[in-house]
TrEMBL record:
Source organism of the structure: Congregibacter brevis
InterPro entries assigned: FAX/IsoI-like, Glutathione-S-Trfase_C_sf, Glutathione_S-Trfase, Mito_Protein_Transport_Metaxin, Thioredoxin-like_fold, Thioredoxin-like_sf
Record protein name field: Glutathione S-transferase family protein
Record-annotated Thioredoxin-like fold domain positions: 18-114
Amino acid sequence: MLELVTLPPAFGMRNVSPFCLKIEMLLTALEVPFTASEEANPGKAPKGKLPYLVAEGQTIADSELIAEYLDGITDGRVYRGMTSQQKAHGVALTRLAEDHLYWMVVASRWLDDAWWPNVVSGFFHIAPKPVRPLVAGLARRQVRQTFNLQGLGRHTLKEQKEFAARDLQALEDAVPESGFLFGETPNIFDFTIAGMMAGAYDNQPATWITGLALGYKKLHAYTERVQETIGVYGRALDSSEA
């Protein structure tokens, strides 16, 4: 039995990480049996990030490497039916979502002074109260440094919002009015986009990314459609949705 290790719930999200949500969707779609467990401290995970998969005595860290592993054990089902052009298109959208837009989602939580208390309560409640501000502050400093090294952190907030809007427009233009990226059933690239956007739309309380994202109606409907089809949602469902 495979074990998927993810972050615990936070910010109204049952699955707060887009990378964790993507792999949970993929495992569910492939109908590969797995158990799920949580790790609140990414520092304890291989490579210092989540998710990771425990499989047959080995640990696979990083969502893309997990997808490749699952492709191997399912006889190529992760990418089955895609042309080389479709896969190239999917990889390009993945890089846009996970290596660019993602960092502005992170910044909208971690680096917004007004929103920062939610990060402290959502992620650092496990730290002893006397050292909680210190631990949280150190982590925030690392996020800020990474954001600057990535390059987006060197721009003004206005410029960051403009970058985010262009990313969101690209995704809005890329996703279909109905169905999914490459057919009638969602695939790994649908899970990538929907996993990223679920947090942007359903994050509680709303961040500045949420406000921007809500303007992209086709993308929002698509994100809901992927989650509903697989039956795996990023947000914590209320009684009317469950």
